[in-house]
Amino acid sequence: MAGHSKWANIQHRKGRQDEKRGKVWTKIIREVTVAAKLGGGDVNANPRLRLALDRAREANMPADNLKRAIDRGTGNLEGAHYEEIRYEGYGPGGVAMIIDCMTDNRVRTVAEVRHALSKFGGNLGTEGSVAFQFKHCGQFLFAPGTPEEQVMEAALEGGAEDVSTLDDGSVEVLCEPADFGAVAAGLQAAGLKPEYSELGMKPSVEVELDGADAERMQKLVDALEDLDDVQRVDHNAILP
Length: 240
Description:
It is a single chain. By secondary structure, the chain is α+β, with helices and mostly antiparallel strands. It has 3 domains: about 5-75, Integrase, N-terminal zinc-binding domain (Arc Repressor Mutant, subunit A, Orthogonal Bundle); about 85-130 and about 205-240, YebC, transcriptional regulation domain (Alpha-Beta Plaits, 2-Layer Sandwich), CATH 3.30.70; about 145-195, YebC, transcriptional regulation domain (Alpha-Beta Plaits). It has helices spanning about 5-20, 20-40, 45-60, 65-75, 105-120, 150-160, 180-190, 210-225, and strands at about 85-90, 95-105, 125, 135-140, 160-165, 170-175, 195-205, 205-210, 230-235, 235-240. Helix 2 (about 20-40) runs antiparallel to helix 3, helix 2 (about 20-40) runs parallel beside helix 4 (about 65-75) and helix 6 crosses helix 7 (about 180-190). The longest helix is centred in the first third of the chain and has 19 residues, at about 20-40. The chain is globular and about 45 Å long. The mean pLDDT is about 90.
């Protein structure tokens, strides 16, 4: 997301999540299950699981649901087996897109993703076709007006790579994926709560859209995020 529109885009995404809480719960359950499968059920040793559980608490998910998801991931309980798949593609105006999915049926998932892309002027690309335009990193976003100096001190002590105030006044912290847990802990210890935190893909080059292309792009992102198998959508579009 672009610096001048980051805050607005995050607020839009959170609003969309509130509208479709049932789908959000489904996505979180899958993330918890896979995180526990890959890194174990100890949140202190598994930053990815810790982040998933933090999102679950924000979404007011019942603790029993989360325990069952962890047990399924660690093999203590039978259930569906999900695998992670990443699709790369293009949206309207040549926007680069990365679509991360978790599925128990690859055929269904690729068909649904391809249909959404085609419907709104996009298309699937080959593996590696757009990934080079993104960097995998941890991102924390603080509300406009948050003191950058205070955030910087706590974040850098935790191992963050960069802290900056964006054009819209929000403060962004970036770190390596492996340092996400330490940075999050440092911010928490300093009494700083980010409005949004994630392990995601940050674009190195952005494309500004307007008019019909911008409208189609927003509809495409919404359509993809509505799919149960899609966990997150990253792109390099600047939307008005």
